[in-house]
Amino acid sequence: MKKVVSPVQSLNGSIKVPGDKSISHRAVMFGAIANGKTTIEGFLPGADCLSTISCFRKLGVQIERSGDEVTVYGNGWEGLKEPDEILDVGNSGTTTRLMLGVLGTRPFHSVVIGDESIGKRPMARVTDPLKAMGAKIDGRGEGNYTPLAVRGGETKGITYESPVASAQVKSAILLAGLQSKGLTSVTEPFKSRDHTERMLTAFGVELKEDNTTVSVRGLQTLKAQHVLVPGDISSAAFFLVAGAIVKNSSITLTNVGMNETRTGIIDVLNRMGAHLQINNSKVVNEEKIADLTISTSKLSSIEIGGEIIPRLIDEIPVIAVLATQANGTTVIKDAEELKVKETNRIDTVVSQLKKLGANIEATEDGMMIHGPTKLTGGKVSSFGDHRIGMAMAIAGSVASEEVEISDVEAIDVSYPNFFDHLSELI
Ligand SMILES: O=C(O)C1=C[C@@H](OP(=O)(O)O)[C@@H](O)[C@H](O)C1
Ligand SMILES: C=C(OP(=O)(O)O)C(=O)O
Fold first, then answer.
1. What's the pTM?
2. CB-based burial label for 128 (10 Å; 0-12, 13-18, 19+)
C-alpha cells in the first residue's frame, strides 16, 4: 500500500499514543506463565503484540482480547502444552527471542517461524546461551535463523556475559533461568531496557540487580497481575520530532512511558535545544509516565554514542530526520545493532533520506547528518520496516513537496493509527 504525505503548515493538538510494545508483549507472556488471571489495560493491538497472543494461544493458553483490554488465563509453566501448529512470530523479534527463552525449558517440541525479515535476524545471540543451559535448538545456520526447532528440557542456570546490550537477549535468558536449577545471571555492556526486571518483580519474582548484571534464582513461579500499559515513547518519538521541526507547531503527547532505560530521545531533544516540557509525572505499575509538550524549535547538532544507544535504539530513524533540520553535523555512532533490526536501518535510513535531499552518509557504526537541509518531495519505501515508514512520513511533513511512501502497511506492527493521529494534528 502507498501513502502520500503532503507538506504541512503546522501541527497542533494532543494525542494519546498507543500502548508500549515492549510492555504489551511481556504482559501477555508473563501472564501466560503465571498462575491465575492477568488483566492488561492499554495493550498495544499492533501486529507484533498480536503475534505474541497468537503464539501463546497455540501453546494452550486461553487469552481474550477486546481492543486494548486483554485477559490471560495462566496455568503456570505446566499450563504450556506442545503446540499442534507452527508458532508464527510474524515480524516480531521480541516475540521470537523472549518466547525462545520460555520454550527452551519446556519438555516438548515446537517450531518457530516468522516473515522474511525475521528470517534474516540473528537468533544465535539467544539460542547459544539457551543451548549452553541445556535446551535443544536447531535451525538454519546452526540455530541462528528461523525456522527454529526447539525441544526444551532440564536446564541449569548460567552466568552469561552478553556481547550486546539487548533486552531481548537478557529477557530470554532470565525467563529460561526462572525455570532452571541454580542461579542465572546476565551481564551486558550497557544497561538495556529493564521492563522485564520491573514486571517480573510485580509478578512476584525475586531478582537481583547490580549495575548491568541481573540475577534470578531458578524454579520461581509468577502470580497473575493487573498490568496498566503506558504509552510507547518509541511511538511518541515520531510526533516529538514532528513538533520540533514543523513550523508553528505545538504537540502534547499524554501518558508517555518515561522509564529511564527508554528516554534517550528526551536527552537528545534537550541537548539539541528543543522546547520540551514534561508535566504530570507519576509512577504506575513500577513504570514512570508523563505528559510531554513539544513546540517548534531551533536545533543544534550533537554527537550520539555510547551508553545512550540502547536507550534510543528504535528512535534512530526519526532522530536522523530531526538531525536534517539541525544546524551542524550530527554524528550517530556505536549503533551497529541497527544493521540487525527489521531492515538494516543504517542503509534504509540513509538511502531513503538521500532520496529526499538530505545530506546524510552511512558510517561503519551509524551515520552522519549535515543540516539544516530543506527536504524535497520524492518516492521512498518503508522496505517493510514500520519505523522507516513512520520516519519517512515525518520527513514528508517538512518537505517542500509530496512524499510518496510505499509499503506503509508495515506501520501496523507498532502504531496502527499513526496516520489518523498525524491527520488529527494538521
Ligand atoms: O526487549 C524489547 O522489547 C526490545 C528490545 C530492543 O531490541 P534488542 O533487544 O535487540 O536490542 C528493541 O530494539 C526492540 O524494539 C524491543
Ligand atoms: C526492533 C524492533 O522490534 P523487534 O525487535 O521486536 O522486531 C522495533 O520495534 O523497532
1. 0.98
2. middle
